[in-house]
# Entry
Amino acid sequence: MRNRNVRLIGAAAAFVALATVVSGCGSDGGGSEGSGDKTETGGGGDLEAIRVPQDYETIQEAVDNAAEGDLVLVDEGTYNEAVTVETPDITIRGVDRNKVILDGEFELENGIRVVDTDGVVVENMTARNYVSNGFFWTGSDRYRGSYLTAYRNGDYGIYAFDAYHGQLDHSLGSGSPDAGFYIGECYKCDAVIDDVISEYNGLGYSGTNSGGDLYIINSTFRNNRAGIVPNAGSYELCYPGRENTIVGNIVHDNNYLEGPGIDVSLLAQGNGILLAGSINNVIERNLVYDHERTGIAAVPFPEEDASDTPPTGDELTKPCDEVKDDPVPEESPGLVLWEATGNRVVDNVVEGSGLADIASGTIPADAENLKRLDNCFSGNNPAKTSPTDLEALAPCEGEGSGGDFAAGAFDLLVLINEQPPAPAKDSYQTTPEPEAQDNMPDALTKAWEKFEGPETPDVDAITVPEKPTS
Amino acid sequence: MAAALVAARRDERALADRPASTPAGVHPLADKKPASDEPFVAEPERWRGPQGRTGQFVVHCTYSHSGPNDPIVHYAMTGMSHRHDFYGAEHTDADTSPDSMLADSTTCDKTADRAAYWQPTVYDHGEIVVPEDMSAYYRAAPGVDPQAVEPFPLGLAMLAGDQFATKPQTGEAAGWTCGVRTDLSVEPPECDPSAPLHLVLTFPDCWDGEYLDSEDHTSHVAYSAGGECPAAIPVHVPQLTVSIRFPISGPGHDLTLASGEVITAHGDFFNGWEPEGLETEISACIRRGAVCDLASNREEEALFSYTR
# Structure
């Protein structure tokens, strides 16, 4: 019913807009100065917007002709465009999430790419079949992506890099060989991923060298090769990843072998929440089940020919901007093991894991090394842990049992060598087509509103989610 | 003022006169700048360490084909060259021109990039080594004002490295490394299988604003120093660094190049970018200082060979 209304409103709006262009402009719609030709849409009463294709034939033209404070409203249709946004503080919105489709036809790179431009909000549309990413913010602060669907894209579904004060919500990322959702190279990121679904990707979530006020909450990560994988490495700046808060998510069945996957995802395969060289994270009240390897594990990320060694002490609290230009060694330090340390894993419901529900590991797996990791585990009620009795050895409150950390510890070298074969590079192009997704409720009525950054979520109020019935 | 003058000269010669209108049988690079008497200084200032310190875009191109051709050094002379491995434009041969590149398909992921990139074939114990792919990094050179960076003109021809070197090349315009490391050596190092051998070529980032090529293929371009281009070669263009991946790792290799010993490492770039696409990437990524792409290190990064 709602869909039908949207269509009718959209059609009415299109008619009004067309009339405006014909009578007012007399050109092909391009070339106006500053804020573009605005149309009052029929659907939203007095909603002011630049309409595509009525005012401008392409999203790119509309965005280029928009000015701060503009809403670009995109009508139903398939747009074979790769849009680059360099206009700050605009909102690009589709009238119908499932019927406004940017399609890269496996030729174009990114659906919408926001480059070094702040305050750009993208909502209520789909991007598919791009060689690189569906939706991409780089060097752009105050970003928000809401009610977005990204599927069958060649790198990431929804991707933020070197970007701060962001929010990704009510969105779906599916069928990418890297991650469905990715936030990388930021500290402190000040970002929230809330109420998203990530499936059939190499990694459900990945973030390299990101964290600090970064929240991943109330979301579902299922049927990826691996679920949530914050990680680290000195091939990009601001290492390591740290201080992510992962609460209230449903993470299940991340063992999907038929889909696409970059090499790292082959290694991470079969794990729900895998802290791969990421430190000082909080993992609480998630529901994690049915993984071939582990439910929640903290493991090192070995980097061959690293650019630098891990920072220590005060260096770890410096904002990314302050360490970006620090010199690195002239010669590679060689192999660097990014240890996953200082992680807090509390009150999660974890079950049905092949090797262990919760785990803490390093190389080599001797007792002293494992103890030094300082990861803690409490209240997860695990059936099996690695090392054995992990919650007694390393509780988050009080003293540990003093038992043997080496007992039942993983030999990660064995696990590393047991990788599934790499899928074909183009396997992302044939991943399952997602079902129609919920529309933004007020797409045709909500006026442009400046996005100032995410609100800090009240994570204490989040409880362990119910297991879905289907 | 100088920039305006340069732009005018560039428009006049490079853009208006050359492409599309080249008479049949006349190669677009036929009007070459005379070779300079000054020695060519090939000492690029290179970005080192992790990516992300400056704006960049990166093009990934798979290996296309090989042939004894070189449309810059031996244009229109099929079979005259040593054997080259080509990337980018899919039909590069001795007759390749800017027009033919623009009309060609590409092995690059950015479809606006129909440029031709090539390097002499690598041999291991006398056997041809088929390369895997290459990454082309486009950035402002260290110290250069990103706002000053202009696109390469269509048809610009450039070489990096010295194919006639008789002793190890200095200056790191061409060098070898493992994986995505940025420290280079003149001899190919022994690499881990997860971070295999790469040839890294850094091309000149200053152009004279006038000629697409020169008799010695170097006198129309130069490397910036301290962020400045030489007065006679004043136009800042992107610093193009090409990193070519070979399936070579471990000990026991005996490598040579089609041009001779490994110290003759070099490569060529012949600009066939669709002009509008190149301008978009330069203005959005380089001038804005944004990281638009990263080399796919994660595909190449260690992990897997850790136990080997």
Observations:
- Confidence is low (pLDDT under 50) at residues 1-34 of chain A.
- The longest helix of chain A spans residues 2-24.
- Residues 205-424 of chain A form one domain.
